[in-house]
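Lecture 7, part B: from sequences to assemblies.

Below are the input chains for today's worked example.
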Amino acid sequence: MINKVGRDIPDEILERYGKEGYNGPDYRNGTYYVKAAPRVRSRMEGSGKILPSLQEALLKCGVRDGMVLSFHHHFRDGDYVVNLVMETVAALGIKDITICASSLGAAHDPVAKLIEEGVVTGIQSSGVRGKIGEAISGGRLKNPAVIRSHGGRVRAIEEGDVHIDIAFIGASTSDEYGNARGVGGKSNCGVLSYSMVDAKYADHVVVVTDCLVEYPNLPASISQVDVDYVVEVEAIGNPDKIVSNVVRMTNDVRELKMAEYCARVIAKAPFFKDGFSFQTGGGGAALAVNRMLRPYLEEKNIRMGFAIGGITQPMCELLEEGFVRRIVDAQCFDAASVKSVENDPGHFEISTSEYANPMNKGAYVNRLDYVVLGALEIDLDFNVNVVTGSDGVVRGAPGGHPDTSAGSNCSIIVAPLLRSRIPTVCDRVVTVTTPGECVDVLVTDYGIAVNPLRQDLLGAFREAGLPLKTIEELRDIAYSIVGEPEPLEFGERVVGIVESRDGTILDVIRQIKD
Amino acid sequence: MINKVGRDIPDEILERYGKEGYNGPDYRNGTYYVKAAPRVRSRMEGSGKILPSLQEALLKCGVRDGMVLSFHHHFRDGDYVVNLVMETVAALGIKDITICASSLGAAHDPVAKLIEEGVVTGIQSSGVRGKIGEAISGGRLKNPAVIRSHGGRVRAIEEGDVHIDIAFIGASTSDEYGNARGVGGKSNCGVLSYSMVDAKYADHVVVVTDCLVEYPNLPASISQVDVDYVVEVEAIGNPDKIVSNVVRMTNDVRELKMAEYCARVIAKAPFFKDGFSFQTGGGGAALAVNRMLRPYLEEKNIRMGFAIGGITQPMCELLEEGFVRRIVDAQCFDAASVKSVENDPGHFEISTSEYANPMNKGAYVNRLDYVVLGALEIDLDFNVNVVTGSDGVVRGAPGGHPDTSAGSNCSIIVAPLLRSRIPTVCDRVVTVTTPGECVDVLVTDYGIAVNPLRQDLLGAFREAGLPLKTIEELRDIAYSIVGEPEPLEFGERVVGIVESRDGTILDVIRQIKD
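Predicted structure of the full complex, as structure tokens:
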């Protein structure tokens, strides 16, 4: 079938997974469903959760072929837990494991070998980078990878689309009864938002920590009532690598120019009033926007109601200085935000379900005025691709992109028109990861395009004298400089499924041609 | 069948409710079950939860005959919400409602009339006092009342023994999207622990508040993701009445004597070491124990690891002064504790599932060293009755009594040997609400009895020179003063079922004879 973003979703895929094609952002709004529930084991003893090794934990949880194991990625490129657990799984001779992670990155390159060996046959993740992405696009993973947004992942768990057999939760601190936090130890990651949902819906829950602390470890991100076992290891991650090159400050003139355009877009849109809400990602231009907003806030004498998302130092500084009333945090992107969530009384941890699940009774993204996001590609329908690279290989992550785009009053894509002679604006993106009807504004270094669905914004920006272009004009400029790109050629085999946040199918990813 | 506390549970009751008789405190420890799950409606709009009236909320939630409505009792005798909602239900002509409350008291006398009218045909509660108790014992409620401990209630909800159609949550503050707290408004009750479970397992959730605050209301006890509607009313409760006569300080010489005995019992038991954990109830002697413990703490130079439970001013003072490391709070019993939980960084709110559910992966009561509790009656097997009065009428509440007795290393009952010429110690309690095998020590004004199952304690107390008696000796003293009481006569009809915390049946309550 051809879905609402014009993508041909093979019927066999829809049938195999019992799914529908994407049918618009509000298709499932206001509908009823019964939530999923785990099968759990009661514990009336006040001790006995500490186990000497991950192997012991896997055996106690009854690990067996075909299980689904879950992980969080709060340590990003510094995570050790996935590899520690998966090595142990492999050593036990277990096969056919599905890894359901909130994201996977370069830290998890060793998993590619486990894919070759059939230890891992399924990947469900937001991000897939590095060698895992190559293994997927090369057709070496047995089952199609399932790519979900952050909101889509927790939706899938809460609706029972995926049932987690064992959740492994790397925790900066834990007590011996499983109360776990993202702060207080030698390896701090700030919040444990992604794992909060896993802890509630997995049959078995194992906390993995490198810092056991006195009972009770409060306030607990993960509660003892959901934890079966606690395993102490030497190190759960390297917090220095939470700041990967995805999250960086910029001195790049082009990025600063886009940031300035973006700040003007925000200030001139009708939502720029006291109490507005805001999210930026961790890209260079996006981060710069945080700082460039300040004079506009001062000029208008207003402040943000809340900032949300992946949180970085510039936003924590705005909080400290009173420009933001609350930070609502689902992921810390740097050391400053880790410190802030531990110490600043205006900075709060939330679960990823609270952040972005489209099927609960109201996520934070529903209340968002502005979001600033990136794109690898964006096409004439404003469809965005943040997952497949220009060679067709999986190397990105939708993350909260589709969730915040759908939820916000004004979603802004900031991207250079060209990257290494590859146009960002194009006729048709390789893979649709955020539907164009949810994308409102595109800011490039060559001008600003507004989605024609948003005549309100177009009017406001025209009046404010912003450098407006149509998206076709931007595409034409790009093509005039570097030429129209050759279409990629793919094999027939579906190696990845891009789920919309509501569980319908947005697009499929096919095997690359060798 | 005759259950493990020697009570004859009618087979028809066991069959009707698909239950087993009580079979020991650890009968279901380590067993597996699938958790319950609600049927919920998604909301992708960022607004629209505010409704103008309770009637509108009831209609939007599809109220109809036979539904189960739930309530918390954090306002105790000052609660307005049950009556406000139930009046509205009655006015809509709805019948056959089951009220599933964490407790009901004198504030809810108007419900007795709704029982007569068939609006209310089921009561599931920990406490039942006042006119509702009379209506139950008089046989006027259509279905047997189900009496559960606090842990047993949340267990029943989480296991699906009771499915809540609509949860009403009186909240001291809420924002328009349903983030609700027990502090910050004009009617503060401190924590919303009882409602935390209802919010997760009810199909529909309505927050009722008398103080709407700016979004987002954080840290939220009840999260927006679980709330369908918010209704503002003039007042949700009278916080002055949180301190009812159940919670009081004492000058009574007899109570002070028992408190002193109790403090010595605690100090001489082997668990009195640095980091021990502790709970007292709100009775006169129990409260006095908090203060009498201090010299023993000072003498031994130790402090409590955590105090839990219903929290009162004396415990908050011990926290402030450094004698307690953490307070873990499932209910505030007075204004001082409400203030403390809002402001003291060592004082934490937990859910009632975290407090006491025997079927989750580990509740706080499992980690308890000492608990100090009351009793209306205690018999030669140490079985305790805290529900039926000397006239056989329901007028009490197990509350956390059975949970903490089962979980703690040393459970201590403090009760005068006689009350108005009625013996507390007796051959056989009218109703078993806490099994004797979970009760370790009885402190009376005539001496201290230790359960023979606890030879370890008996040895320690004998060595310490405590005034020990056997429970038979205490019974003999009581009977020698006031005579042996005449056995109560009951009708045949079962009007109440006392569930053990694990869902098995501990006892039944029969209709009183007119």
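Note for the exam: Chain B is about 30% helix and 25% strand. Keep this in mind when comparing with the next example.
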